[in-house]
Design brief:
Elements: H1 2-6, E1 22-27, H2 33-38, E2 43-48, H3 50-54, H4 62-75, E3 80-84, H5 112-117, H6 119-132, E4 137-142, H7 148-168, E5 177-182, H8 185-189, H9 191-197, E6 200-203, H10 205-213, H11 231-246, E7 250-253, H12 264-270, E8 274-278, H13 282-289
Parallel strand pairs: 1-2, 1-8, 2-3, 3-4, 4-5, 5-6, 6-7, 7-8
Bound molecules: phosphoenolpyruvate and magnesium ion (MG).
């Protein structure tokens, strides 16, 4: 079986009827790139930047972050690298952030909510990202979005960061593709409006399932109730896909469900343009995509 999959290396991610799909890999550390290339992924669809914060005993500096993003971009040699801004909070706690203990951390102060209130942390990361984008094909993605106002606030901060870099004479890339994660039911329901504001969507099915089914993704007792194929979640993905395409934007899936080959055909029928999966699943998903005929 492994050998069979190896034969799929260097093969295109294309359906029998000729629809091109982008199969990318998820990574959680800059050292994971070797595995991505070994499995012949055509890009990185989710680079979880939290490792930089979790590995450190203090806020990672702009230079530290710049080096990490630049290395990944260079090693991917022109292939797309979608870096997600920090998603600390909830389950991922870091001492130096001095976050309060919360009753419902999954519904709490996390991700973009931290970035939009502690802007110096966010700006440091954005500066590193815009600088690193000079060295490869970097896109930026924002987690846990629930409103158009958040996206507009992000744009104001990006404009400030770029202006500051310009004033300081530091090289950066002017136009970086930016997208949002669709991982809250709110973002799905207003995805028509959000699609006007961003370049792409990437569905985080882990959190989208958690928030849609009101099931804590960490609570093992709830496993019997956690139906990853729940119709409500699939309908939401379809809705976000339709709204993305109505604005000419692309949509991918970077949550675990993207690697579920029993759903690949359904996803492609919805028009999902990209699937980002763990590196070890890339060839498996490629195999499945190449068997599908969307005209049937
Ligand atoms: C998700 O929620 O599906 C996702 C990809 O993000 P994370 O698992 O890092 O929360
Ligand atoms: Mg998530």
């Amino acid at each position: 079986r492994k050998e069979l999959l190896q034969q799929l290396k260097d093969k295109e991610d294309i359906t029998l009827d000729g629809t091109k799909i982008n199969i990318y890999a998820n990574i959680g550390n800059s050292s994971d790139v070797g595995n991505v290339l070994k499995n012949d992924a055509n890009g990185i669809g989710l680079f979880r930047s939290e490792f930089l914060y979790l590995e450190n005993s203090d806020y990672p500096t702009e230079e530290q972050q710049f080096a990490a993003y630049k290395t990944v971009a260079e090693n991917m040699a022109g292939k797309k690298v979608i870096i997600r801004t920090l998603d600390i909070g909830a389950d991922k706690k870091v001492d130096y952030f001095k976050l309060d203990k919360e009753e419902n951390p999954a519904l709490g102060y996390r991700a973009i909510r931290i970035c939009l209130t502690r802007k110096e942390i966010f700006k440091t990361q954005l500066r590193a990202l815009y600088r690193a984008a000079v060295f490869g094909n970097i896109s930026i993605m924002f987690p846990m979005i629930i409103s158009v106002e958040e996206v507009k606030a992000i744009k104001v901060i990006i404009a400030q960061v770029k202006e500051e870099l310009k004033q300081e004479g530091i090289p950066f890339k002017e136009n970086v593709e930016t997208g949002i994660m669709i991982e809250t039911p709110a973002s799905v329901m207003i995805s028509d409006e959000l699609a006007k504001e961003v370049d792409f969507f990437s569905v985080g099915t882990n959190d989208l399932t958690q928030y849609t089914l009101a099931i804590d993704r960490q609570n093992q007792k709830l496993e019997p109730f956690y139906n990853a194929h729940h119709k409500a979640v699939l309908k939401m993905i379809k809705m976000a896909a339709d709204n993305a395409h109505a604005e000419g934007k692309w949509i991918g899936i970077c949550g675990e469900l993207g690697a579920d080959i029993t759903l690949t055909e359904e996803f492609l029928k919805m028009g999902i343009d990209e699937l980002s999966v763990s590196a070890s699943m890339v060839l498996e998903v490629r195999k499945r995509v190449r068997e599908i005929d969307l005209t049937k």
